[in-house]
Amino acid sequence: MLPRRHALSLLAAPFLLPRMAGAQAPWAPTRPISLVVPFPPGGPTDLAARVIQQGMSSALGQPVVVENRPGATGAIGSRHVAQQPADGHTLLVAASGTLTINPVVMRNPGYDVEKDFAPVTLVMTAPNMVVVNPAIPATNVAELVAWMKTVPGGPAYASSGVGSSEQLGMELFKLLTQTEALPVPFAGGPAAATSVIQNTVPMAVLNAATVGAHVREGRLRGIAICGPNRFPMLPDVRTMAEQGLPEHVSTSWTGIVAPAATPAPVLARLNEVIVAALRTPEVTERLARVGFAVDATSREALGKLINDDLTRWRRVVREARIETN
InterPro entries of this UniProt entry (predicted)? Predict the structure, then answer.
């Protein structure tokens, strides 16, 4: 007869086997990972990819390469990632416009966000902001609306480009306040900001990271932050919600997505590694210096953000009768 302790060990063994068999090591890449940025080097989306590059490589044991594939306001690089094997080795580092505005304003961007991509994590956010030239007699939303209604046909507003989150943010403002304003497109946010500073165009909705320093130094006046919270660089500028327009949400953000069929364990591991890389003090401080807040999240939170923005911008494009291209 077996000693009692041996018999108990044998009885317990069958119950341990399934648990041991089910335990799996976290997914690990077998070759370098490509972070595809659908814009040229040097912009905020490119910066987002590069600040997590080393942290990802150290955690996953493979080189992480930033690959810039610019063109068609992000559509070319996005299309490329949608067509890659869904194995975790190719990811898209995308601006909000790439994922939630291109599909709304382009007739055929060449990818379907809801079918072709799986969310990995949000990376960083910066709200848009309503700004005016200091000569405009308005310091808040109510005063701005009152002034806009005195201008026959509505004032002009500077747009950072047709179909940008800033342009759609202004169109949403017009819908909510029942005002008129005429878009004047510029080649990007800095050029649009310059036009408002020079008062060639009196107002705009622009990214707070782009215009924050101008507002702080008095070249522009901040009317309202278009995000849920005040902007740390400009704590005295109230949000839209604080001024009676909680429906007005317009933010620029960067997120990471993978090809849609990527297995859940791969997505979970990528989320874990990237979120850890983003939450290091060095990364947080580096992004804060250029006006962005780290906003690393769950996969589900990014998926909800994408769906909410798609719903919002589809409504704006439809009701403002913005022509798609």
Answer: BUG (IPR005064)
